[in-house]
C-alpha cells in the first residue's frame, strides 16, 4: 500500500519528521518571545519601582489610616519620624517593631496597608522615554524592546499560532509514535494501529493547516526579529523616535499600566461594552499593533455597524477605521469607500497602504471616473473627496454595496441639504456599516450632532434632542451610546508628554496702537485682529515671535506657527527670512501641503513651518514639532484645539510648548473673555460627550455676533466713533 508514491511507512515517517520540525519552530518562537519579554521586564521593573517609590514618598503616612478604615493606629509610627507611606513601605517588619508602642499586629497592618497603596500606585505610573534625558536605565529598556517592536503585530500572531499548534501537535505526535518504527507498528494491536492511523491523519491536517496559514515562514521571520538588537544605544533611540507609538503601546501592554477600562471604552453601558469586547478582531490584514482602546474602537464600529467615532484628535481614529476595514476584508468583503476632505486624501492613501495590506485606490482629480470604474471592477479601498463624490455614479447606479463606508471629518455633512451631504447619504443608505469620524461632532450645537445621528440611525434621532440635553448628562449618554464613542487623550494616552501652554502678553508699540485705533474706528473686526502685525518694523508680537523661534533654534527644536491670516504669515516669513521651510495656506494644493509637512519633518534639527490654521489644523500630522506659536487667539475653541492636536498627538515624544501671542488691552483680551465662556460650554458638550444643565443654544456664539460685540466695546473703550 502506498501513499503519495512512497511506501506508507516511509510517508508516515516523513510526515512525522516534518511535524517535528514545525513543532520545534513553534516552541522556538515561544521561547524567543518569552526571553524577549523577560528581558524587557528585567529592565522595566526597577524603573516602575522607582516611580512607585517616588509617588509613595509624597503621600502622607496618615493615608494608612484611611486604607484600614481607621483601624490602624499610627501615632507611634508618626512619632518615630515616619512622615510618608514610602518610608513605611521601605521599612522591614523588624524595624517597625522596634518602635515603642508598635507590636507585631500593628507592624503587619502598617506594611499591608502601605503595600496596598503601592499596588494601587503601580497601576497608575508609566515610564516616560525622554529623548532629552537618555539615561542608562531607559536606554537599556529601549534596547530590550527593540526586537519585540521589530516583530510588530506578527509577533502576536506567531505566538498565538505557536501555542495553538503545540497544544494540537504534542498529543498527536505522541499517539502517532509507533509509526516512527516498522517493528513497533507491526507488533501493535489492531486497536493501537487504528489509533496511530487516526493520529497520523490529525498530524497531516495540523501540518496542512499550518502551511495554509503561512505559519512556517511566519515563525522563522518572527524568531529572527525577536533576536534582533539595535546595534548601539544611539540606534535604539533613533528607532524609538521613528516609531515611539509602537514602543509605548508595547510597554503599556507589558507593564499592565494601560488606561482605565471604563475610560478606554468611552464609558459605554456595561452590556454594550460586553458585546463589543466579545468580538475577536481579525488583524490578519493589518500591519500595525493597536492599542487596547483602538482595538475596542474598531470593534465598536463593527458590532454597532452605524456609528460616530468621536475620539479626541491624536488618538488614531484613522487607524481604528482601517482596522475595521481590515477585519471585514479578512472575512471576505472586497469593496470599501472612504470619503474625506481633499486636504487629507493623500494622508489616507498613505495610511491605508502603510497600516494594512488593503489596496488603496485614490478616486480624485481628472481621472477619477476611470479610477472609480477600476474600483468597481477590482475592489479595494476607494478614497475620494466630498466634492468628487457627488460627481461620481451614485450608490444605486454603481451596483456595489461597500463592506463599510467611512466618512472622515463627518461634521462636513452636518447639513443634510448640502450637495455633499446628499451624496454621502446616497451611499450610506445602501451600506450596512457606516463609520463617521470627527473629533468635534458637537462643536457649536447639539443639533449638529443630532443631524449626524439622523443619517446613521434615524430611530435614535428623537432621543438626541434638546429635551434630553436639558435633562442632563445621563439622559444624553443613554440616548447616544448605541451610535457614539468618544475617548480623550488624558484618559487613554498616559505616555503623551505634557502640553505647556503660555499666554505671551505684549504691550502695543506706538505703531501697533496707531494701526489698532484706525481699525477700531473703521469698525473692521478682522483688521483689528491682525493690527499687531500691520507695521512689522515696530511690531511687539513679531519681536516676541522672533525670540521664541530663536530660542527653539538654539535647542534644535522644530516650530509650527499658526495664524488665521495669510497676510500675517507672510509678515512672519519676511521677519524670519531663510529660517522658514514652507507656508501652508488654503491656496496650496493638498498634495503640496503633505510634501511641505514631510520636508519639515525630514529637516535635520530646527525648522519652522508656517500654516494658516484652517489649512494645517485639520488632517495633517505635525508631531515632528514641539513648539507651537499661535499668532492670535481664535474665535472657535475647537480651532486652537485642532491645531495643537496636530502636534500633540500619538507619536509625540517631547513636551509640547504652546505660545499664544496676545496684545494687552485689545481685541485679544475681549475675545478671550468671550471664548473662555464658550469653551467651558463646548467642553461640556463635545470634549466630555456630556450635556450641561443648559440649552444647546447657549454654546453658540456666532462670529458675526462676537465681532459686533467686540467692535462696539472697543469703540466705547477707546472713544472712537464708528463710521456711518
From TrEMBL:
SMART domains in the cross-refs: DEXDc, HELICc
Keyword NAD: no
Cross-referenced Gene3D superfamilies: P-loop containing nucleotide triphosphate hydrolases, Tandem AAA-ATPase domain
Keyword flag ATP-binding: yes
CDD domains from the UniProt entry: DEXHc_Snf, SF2_C_SNF
Transmembrane portions of the chain: none
Pfam families documented for this protein: Helicase_C, SNF2-rel_dom
Domain Helicase ATP-binding: 298-459
Entry-linked InterPro entries: Helicase_ATP-bd, Helicase_C-like, P-loop_NTPase, SNF2-like_sf, SNF2/RAD54-like_C, SNF2_N
Keywords: ATP-binding, Helicase, Hydrolase, Nucleotide-binding
PROSITE patterns listed in its UniProt record: HELICASE_ATP_BIND_1 (PS51192), HELICASE_CTER (PS51194)
Gene Ontology MF terms: helicase activity
Domain Helicase C-terminal, chain residue ranges per copy: 544-707
PANTHER family found in the cross-reference section: SNF2/RAD54 HELICASE FAMILY
Protein name as catalogued: DEAD/DEAH box helicase
Origin species: Streptomyces drozdowiczii
Lineage: Bacteria, Bacillati, Actinomycetota, Actinomycetes, Kitasatosporales
Amino acid at each position: 500500500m502506498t501513499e503519495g508514491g512512497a511506501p506508507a511507512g516511509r510517508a508516515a515517517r516523513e510526515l512525522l519528521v516534518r511535524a517535528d520540525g514545525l513543532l520545534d519552530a513553534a516552541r522556538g518562537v515561544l521561547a524567543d518571545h518569552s526571553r524577549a519579554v523577560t528581558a524587557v521586564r528585567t529592565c522595566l521593573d526597577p524603573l516602575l519601582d522607582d516611580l512607585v517609590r517616588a509617588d509613595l514618598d509624597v503621600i502622607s503616612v496618615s493615608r494608612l489610616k484611611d486604607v484600614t478604615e481607621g483601624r490602624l493606629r499610627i501615632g507611634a509610627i508618626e512619632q518615630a519620624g515616619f512622615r510618608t507611606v514610602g518610608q513605611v513601605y521601605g521599612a522591614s517588619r523588624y524595624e517597625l517593631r522596634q518602635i515603642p508602642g508598635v507590636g507585631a499586629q500593628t507592624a503587619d497592618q502598617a506594611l499591608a496597608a502601605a503595600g496596598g497603596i503601592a499596588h494601587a500606585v503601580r497601576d497608575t505610573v508609566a515610564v516616560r522615554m525622554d529623548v532629552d534625558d537618555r539615561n542608562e536605565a531607559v536606554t537599556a529598556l529601549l534596547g530590550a524592546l527593540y526586537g519585540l517592536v521589530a516583530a510588530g503585530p506578527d509577533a502576536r500572531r506567531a505566538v498565538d499560532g505557536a501555542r495553538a499548534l503545540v497544544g494540537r501537535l504534542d498529543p498527536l505526535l505522541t499517539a502517532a509514535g509507533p509509526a516512527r518504527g516498522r517493528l513497533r507498528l507491526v507488533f501493535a494491536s489492531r486497536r493501537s494501529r487504528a489509533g496511530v492511523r487516526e493520529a497520523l491523519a490529525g498530524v497531516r491536517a495540523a501540518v496542512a493547516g499550518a502551511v495554509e496559514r503561512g505559519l512556517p515562514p511566519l515563525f522563522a521571520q518572527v524568531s529572527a526579529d525577536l533576536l534582533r538588537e539595535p546595534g548601539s544605544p544611539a540606534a535604539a533611540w533613533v528607532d524609538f523616535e521613528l516609531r515611539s507609538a509602537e514602543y509605548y503601546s508595547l510597554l503599556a501592554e507589558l507593564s499592565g499600566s494601560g488606561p482605565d477600562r471604563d475610560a478606554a471604552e468611552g464609558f459605554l453601558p456595561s452590556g454594550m461594552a460586553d458585546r463589543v469586547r466579545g468580538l475577536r478582531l481579525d488583524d490578519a490584514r493589518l500591519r500595525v499593533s493597536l492599542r487596547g482602546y483602538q482595538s475596542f474602537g474598531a470593534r465598536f464600529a463593527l458590532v454597532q455597524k452605524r456609528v460616530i467615532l468621536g475620539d479626541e484628535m491624536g488618538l488614531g481614529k484613522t487607524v481604528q477605521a482601517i482596522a475595521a476595514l481590515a477585519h471585514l476584508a479578512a472575512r471576505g468583503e472586497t469593496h470599501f469607500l472612504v470619503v474625506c476632505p481633499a486636504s487629507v486624501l493623500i494622508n489616507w492613501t498613505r495610511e491605508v497602504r502603510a497600516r494594512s495590506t488593503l489596496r488603496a485606490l485614490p478616486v480624485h482629480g481628472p481621472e477619477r471616473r476611470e479610477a472609480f470604474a477600476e474600483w468597481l471592477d477590482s475592489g479595494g479601498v476607494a478614497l475620494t473627496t466630498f466634492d468628487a463624490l457627488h460627481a461620481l455614479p451614485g450608490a444605486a447606479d454603481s451596483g456595489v454595496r461597500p463592506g463599510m463606508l467611512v466618512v472622515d471629518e463627518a461634521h462636513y455633512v452636518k447639513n443634510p441639504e448640502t450637495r455633499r451631504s446628499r451624496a454621502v447619504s446616497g451611499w450610506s443608505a445602501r451600506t450596512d456599516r457606516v463609520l463617521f469620524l470627527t473629533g468635534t461632532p458637537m462643536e457649536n450645537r447639539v443639533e449638529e450632532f443630532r443631524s449626524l445621528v439622523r443619517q446613521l440611525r434615524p430611530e435614535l434621532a428623537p432621543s438626541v434632542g434638546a429635551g434630553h440635553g436639558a435633562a442632563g448628562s445621563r439622559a444624553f449618554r443613554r440616548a447616544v451610546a448605541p451610535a457614539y464613542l468618544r475617548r480623550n487623550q488624558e484618559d487613554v494616552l498616559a505616555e503623551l508628554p505634557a502640553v505647556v501652554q503660555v499666554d505671551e502678553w505684549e504691550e502695543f508699540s506706538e505703531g501697533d496702537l496707531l494701526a489698532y485705533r484706525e481699525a477700531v474706528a473703521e469698525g473692521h473686526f478682522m483688521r483689528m485682529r491682525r493690527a499687531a502685525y500691520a507695521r512689522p518694523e515696530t511690531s511687539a508680537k513679531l519681536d516676541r515671535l522672533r525670540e521664541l523661534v530663536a530660542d527653539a533654534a538654539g535647542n534644535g527644536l522644530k516650530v509650527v506657527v499658526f495664524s488665521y491670516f495669510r497676510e500675517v504669515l507672510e509678515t512672519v516669513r519676511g521677519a524670519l527670512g531663510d529660517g522658514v521651510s514652507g507656508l501652508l495656506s488654503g491656496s496650496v494644493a493638498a498634495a503640496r501641503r503633505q510634501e511641505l509637512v514631510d520636508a519639515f519633518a525630514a529637516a535635520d534639527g530646527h525648522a519652522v513651518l508656517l500654516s494658516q490654521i484652517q489649512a494645517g489644523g485639520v488632517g495633517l500630522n505635525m508631531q515632528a514639532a514641539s513648539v507651537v506659536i499661535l499668532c492670535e487667539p481664535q474665535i472657535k475653541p475647537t480651532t486652537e484645539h485642532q491645531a495643537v492636536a496636530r502636534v500633540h498627538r500619538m507619536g509625540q515624544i517631547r513636551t509640547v510648548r504652546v505660545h499664544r501671542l496676545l496684545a494687552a488691552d485689545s481685541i485679544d483680551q475681549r475675545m478671550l473673555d468671550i471664548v473662555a465662556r464658550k469653551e467651558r460650554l463646548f467642553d461640556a458638550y463635545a470634549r466630555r460627550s456630556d450635556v450641561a444643565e443648559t440649552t444647546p443654544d447657549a454654546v453658540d456664539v456666532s462670529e458675526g455676533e462676537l465681532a459686533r460685540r467686540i467692535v462696539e466695546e472697543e469703540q466705547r473703550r477707546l472713544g472712537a466713533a464708528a463710521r456711518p
